Amino acid sequence: MKDFWNSRFALKSYVYGKKPNKFVKETLDKLNLKGKVLFPADGEGRNSVYAATKGLEVFAFDISIEGQKKALALAKEQNVSIIYEIINLDDLDLEKESFDAIVLVFAHFPPQLRQKYHRKLTELLVPGGILILQGFNKENFRLRQRSPLAGGPGNIDMLFSIEELKDDFEELDFVEIKKETIILREGDFHKAESSVIHLIAKKNKNVKRDN
Q: Which superfamily is assigned to 2-203 in CATH?
């Protein structure tokens, strides 16, 4: 996958555009968050850079060095600073309960790792911290067959269902979780009818899972 994303992000244009994801922008604007925000699988930086323009302290990571180059260039263009590392989730070693928010945008993992990764990320949220997620749901498989520009994995098992996400993030209190069919307008690779899940949740301050 690293070679795939390096090849895609090596294109001259920002392949998903420079503007932030619409749902992420609207949510950040509405919640007016403060503090440290984590952006896993950040790609070319359109979302993390926007968060930095809101005065948030941003830590981003991805497996693609080409994505990192463009994210740092975009941050410089916007006169903001972000920390962006090249690392995968298995090797990520961050202090637990150290982020006020985590933003996941079209971050789809192999099905055998999805829950493990989602729960690892949950551990990084402070009590009361916010998770913001937009991802493709399983109904997008049909739309992607009709048009590849619907985006998302071609493997239906890598797509989300509301039930799976509720289970993965069981320690969180869900403020909003819904599926929606939208027209994506994000660069050259997201510009078709797509089926997505929107999720906003807050880390429960009291419930602890028995390991």
A: Vaccinia Virus protein VP39 (3.40.50.150)
